[in-house]
């Protein structure tokens, strides 16, 4: 992928006539605060960056890939008041905190989670379960063409096509 027009999100917003408010992606970031080799990824985690998204009508969250690849701890299903600060170093409570907080912060904003294919089963099932708990639409991507684990130009088109089909 060498041109912004090749990215899935550019294709989706162009097809819908939308305007990009903020692209807050950060290479290698995890949803939880634990990153690769158990390192502290709090400065770049989705939890840290979720307050910096402007005033959008739609938020696409394409996450959990690095949580899966880094072998971040899965943790227990916890929601709302049951989540303590130390729990945010584990995927399930961090995912739940992120969705709950974003729904409260971005009122009247449609939040859509994109779930990559080829992730650890525990991550995939956790995303589906937590999205269902919060009523967040989860687009489960399938058969995305990748090079070294990352979507190729063809893969970006496949993601865009699957997102557009899910939005219809």
Short characterization:
By secondary structure, the chain is α/β, with parallel strands linked by helices. It has helices spanning 8-16, 46-49, 65-69, 91-105, 121-134, 153-167; strands at residues 58-62, 110-115, 137-140, 146-147, 150-151.
Descriptive keywords:
168 residues, 3-stranded parallel sheet, two-stranded antiparallel sheet, 6 helices
Major β-sheet annotation? 3 strands, parallel
Number of strands: 5
Radius of gyration: 15 Å
Measured distance between first and last alpha carbons: 26 Å
What is the averaged pLDDT score? 96
N-to-C order of helices and strands: HHEHHEHEEEH
Number of helices: 6
Describe the structure.
The radius of gyration is 15 Å and the shape is globular. The strands form two sheets. It has a three-stranded parallel sheet, sandwiched between helices. Strands 4-5 form a two-stranded antiparallel sheet. It has 168 residues and is of the alpha/beta class. It is 37% helix and 11% strand. A hairpin with a 2-residue loop joins strand 4 and strand 5. The longest helix has 15 residues. The mean pLDDT is 96. The protein is built from six helices and five strands. Helix 1 packs across helix 6 and helix 4 packs parallel to helix 5.
Topology readout:
Layout: H1 8-16, H2 46-49, E1 58-62, H3 65-69, H4 91-105, E2 110-115, H5 121-134, E3 137-140, E4 146-147, E5 150-151, H6 153-167
Parallel strand pairs: 1-2, 2-3
Antiparallel strand pairs: 4-5
């Amino acid at each position: 992928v060498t041109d912004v027009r090749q990215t899935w999100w550019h294709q989706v917003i162009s097809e819908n006539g939308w305007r990009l408010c903020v692209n807050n992606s950060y290479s290698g970031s995890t949803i939880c605060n634990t990153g690769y080799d158990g390192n502290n990824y709090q400065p770049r985690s989705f939890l840290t960056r979720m307050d910096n998204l402007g005033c959008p009508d739609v938020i696409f969250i394409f996450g959990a890939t690095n949580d899966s690849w880094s072998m971040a701890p899965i943790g227990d299903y916890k929601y709302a008041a049951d989540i303590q600060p130390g729990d945010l170093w584990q995927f399930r409570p961090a995912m739940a905190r992120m969705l709950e907080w974003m729904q409260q912060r971005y009122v009247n904003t449609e939040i859509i989670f994109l779930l990559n294919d080829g992730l650890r089963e525990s991550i995939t099932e956790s995303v589906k379960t937590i999205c269902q708990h919060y009523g967040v639409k989860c687009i489960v991507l399938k058969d995305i063409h990748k090079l070294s684990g990352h979507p190729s130009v063809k893969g970006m088109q496949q993601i865009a096509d699957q997102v557009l089909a899910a939005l219809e």
